[in-house]
């Protein structure tokens, strides 16, 4: 009877790894209707940087549930099943945390931008807009900082 829950738990683990990273072109619902200050600048340099994996707790939780369910099938009696569930939950939590970290790590671009006011800033984000060195950009500073192509009329 309990075997039918294993695919559901495994599906939850798979969905936990499908988060997308921050993007200059997408906003979370909570970021809508918020003001951002805007400054203009020019990209001085760019380089690829590595981004670390996230630990939101989803991987640990889903792994612990899956491990606990799988571990509860060990042994022949109630005590052995309970110990198997505890051990499975601990091992599953560790495996889930490692999986979440591995799935969410990757690379991004570090942009060095000379702002029109003379100051220089570094911004790390994806480069889905295919921005390049020397290009004019807008720096949007609110809860997060974003770099977008400057398409304003000069």
Task: List the secondary-structure elements in sequence, H or E.
Answer: HEHHEEEE
> Which sheet architecture does the biggest sheet show?
5 strands, antiparallel
Shape: elongated
Helix share, percent? 25-40%
Uncertain regions: pLDDT < 50 for 5+ in a row?
Answer: 15-21
**Counted beta strands:** 5
Distance from N terminus to C terminus (CA atoms, Å) equals 69 Å
Please state roughly what percent of the residues sit in beta strands, choosing from under 5%, 5-15%, 15-25%, 25-35%, 35-45% or over 45%: 25-35%
Structural category: alpha+beta
| Mean pLDDT, all residues | 75
The largest beta-sheet arranges its strands as 3-2-1-4-5
Radius of gyration (Å): 23 Å
Count, helices: 3
Short descriptors:
2 domains; 5-stranded antiparallel beta sheet; 3 helices; single chain; alpha+beta; 154 residues; OB fold (Dihydrolipoamide Acetyltransferase, E2P); elongated
How does this structure look, described?
With 154 residues, the chain is α+β, with helices and mostly antiparallel strands. The radius of gyration is 23 Å and the shape is elongated. Helix 1 (6-16) runs antiparallel to helix 2 and helix 2 (58-71) runs antiparallel to helix 3 (78-104). It has 3 helices and 5 strands. The chain has 2 domains: 1-24 and 53-104, no CATH class; 35-52 and 106-154, OB fold (Dihydrolipoamide Acetyltransferase, E2P) (Beta Barrel), CATH 2.40.50. A 5-stranded antiparallel beta sheet has the order 3-2-1-4-5, with no helix packed on it. Strand 4 (136-141) and strand 5 (145-149) form a beta hairpin. The termini are far apart. The chain has helices at residues 6-16, 58-71, 78-104, and strands at residues 37-51, 106-115, 120-125, 136-141, 145-149.
């Amino acid at each position: 009877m309990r075997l039918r829950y294993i695919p559901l738990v495994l599906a939850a683990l798979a969905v936990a790894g499908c988060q997308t990273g921050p993007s200059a072109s997408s906003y979370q619902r909570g970021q809508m209707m918020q003001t951002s200050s805007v400054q203009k600048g020019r990209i001085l340099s760019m380089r690829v940087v590595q981004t670390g994996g996230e630990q939101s707790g989803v991987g640990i939780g889903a792994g612990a549930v899956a491990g606990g369910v799988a571990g509860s099938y060990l042994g022949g009696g109630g005590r052995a099943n309970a110990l198997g569930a505890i051990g499975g939950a601990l091992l599953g939590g560790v495996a889930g945390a490692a999986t979440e970290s591995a799935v969410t790590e990757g690379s991004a671009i570090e942009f060095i931008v000379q702002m029109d006011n003379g100051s220089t800033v570094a911004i790390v984000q994806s480069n889905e807009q295919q921005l390049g060195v020397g290009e004019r950009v807008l720096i949007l500073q609110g809860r997060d900082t974003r770099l977008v192509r400057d398409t304003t009329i000069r």
